[in-house]
Amino acid sequence: MSTAETESSSESESSVVLRQAGLIEKFHIIRSSISFYNNVIVSASYSSKKPLSPDRLVRALHTVLSAHPSLSAGIQLPEEPTGTPSFIPLPSIDFTKSEKFIIWESSSTSSSHAKEYKSLLCRLHDTPFPNEDLTSLPLWRIGVLKRSYNTPTAYDSETNSEGRIDYEIAFSYHHAIADGLSGAAFHYSLVSALNNIDEASGHGTSWDIYTPPGDLELLPPMDEILDFGMGLKTAGRVAGFVGKSILPSFMHKSVWAAGKVPEKLSPTKVDFLTVEPYTLETLMKALKTKKVSLTAFLTYAAADALFSVMKALEKDEFAKIKNVKVSVPMSYRKSAGWDNTIMADCIGAINWDIGKFKALDGEISGMKKLTLVLKKESTVTRDSEVGLISLVGDLAGFFKGQVGKDRELTFEVSNLGVLDADKLGELKKKEGSKEEVEGDKTATKEPEDWKVEEALFSQSASVTGPAFSVNAVTVGKKLGIVVQWMDGVLKDDVMEALVKEMDKIISGFSSKIGK
pLDDT tens digits, residue range 107-148? Predict the structure, then answer.
């Protein structure tokens, strides 16, 4: 084949389009392409009696990549501002260059682990997917943080009290290829792959390169399956929407949202808290008696914490607050016929106004109402706000047009719910199985014991998004909450106090309303 023919063939392969981006995918692609938002992270705490080597992780990732086609996709940006991005297959994923998308670290000491964990999450959140790499590098990254149990004044240990080695494995990804539940699906696949690596096979096999199959096929965008059309209910919204050339807030009240939209993305800040099993169990029993969902409760708990902290630390700003506006994402997977094991971008959201209140236990009716609205809206796509994206010709212009204007969202509450314990390596261990080896000899293969014991869910800062976000996920009756904000939007001491206040509110709420 001549050089010209080779170049032509290569050009042809690189121009293969898997499909065009759907509405929410386009929204996420354009927002990231102008550096207004970076990524999502679902991080999980892994535990095993065996160490995690780069080779073992790469072998497991080959299995994960085979299970989830979107992890082998790249993005082709449109040439025109009003164009639609497309998904294309990556030529390959080269693990010899994994330093570009896999980070390996170890905690210094037991006491410094939490700080180093936060640092890793922030650095991943602050690392964008550059436009020039969208067609050649994966749209995901992994951060591995080995937990140290070293205590300078007592002992040095790399294992916990059970003799197990612990790792935080953070999966960071472009929002266009996956939603929050997709991050959980990644960990379901990874822990299974780690537990099923056959040490006796694969010798002589090179794991350096992963080449996607030639027939790589993505799931269709959710708006190809679901009806995101606009009916009479939307008519009143459209006029204002088109007139302002921005997504509507429909604010009939004065909403406090921490000031103006900044010009550019600043570093992501995070803090997190853990709700232990006993506290969570007590809380869930109390909420059940009131017919309130955990998501609705966390929404009002975050508002309560904000009001309390602003009153104590920012009295002038507190006086300005009359109402806050909250975005509450929800999944359309059930309507699309997709379960929680697949990776896709299948979400919507509702906006919810909360008036300033004095006591959280007096807001039960509001929590009940939000619970019912979320349940209903997660099954109704027509007239939802996702469909309004189709009215925006130039999404980049839409985002940039918000700079300098009042922010429209105070905070967001996103809850992944309870992860499936059966898919996190927590099943009862099976007895070793016998496998045939050379000749008549037999060997007992001991079952692997990788398992996930905790998880965290977080998002990067967003230029035009809410002033802060509250992200929750439950693993084995333990609730992990990450509160995220962008540097300069809210003061660090305010947000750190807000996290502590939320912890107090969650712990004490059950006793206030009765069990």
Answer: 998 999 999 999 999 999 999 999 999 999 999 999 999 999
DSSP string, 291-331: T--HHHHHHHHHHHHHHHHHHHH-HHHHHH-SEEEEEEEEE
Q: What is the pLDDT of residues 397-413, one digit of tens each?
A: 999 999 999 999 999 99
- Given a contact cutoff of 8 angstroms between Cβ atoms, the answer to whether 164 and 46 are in contact is no
CA atoms of 329 and 386, how far apart (whole Å): 11
Which one, of 108, 122, 220, 106, lies nearest residue 167 by Cα? 106
Burial class (CB in 10 A: 0-12, 13-18, 19+), 327: buried
Cα distances (Å, whole numbers) of residue 404 to 333, 399, 487: 36, 11, 17
Q: Are 348 and 332 in contact (CB under 8 A)?
A: yes
User: What's the start-to-end Cα distance of the chain, in Å?
Assistant: 77
Which domains does the chain show, CATH number per domain? 15-200+419-452 (3.30.559.10), 250-412+462-513 (3.30.559.30)
pLDDT tens-place string over residues 309-357: 999 999 999 999 999 999 999 999 999 999 999 999 999 999 999 999 9
Distance of alpha carbon 421 from its chain centroid, rounded?
Answer: 19
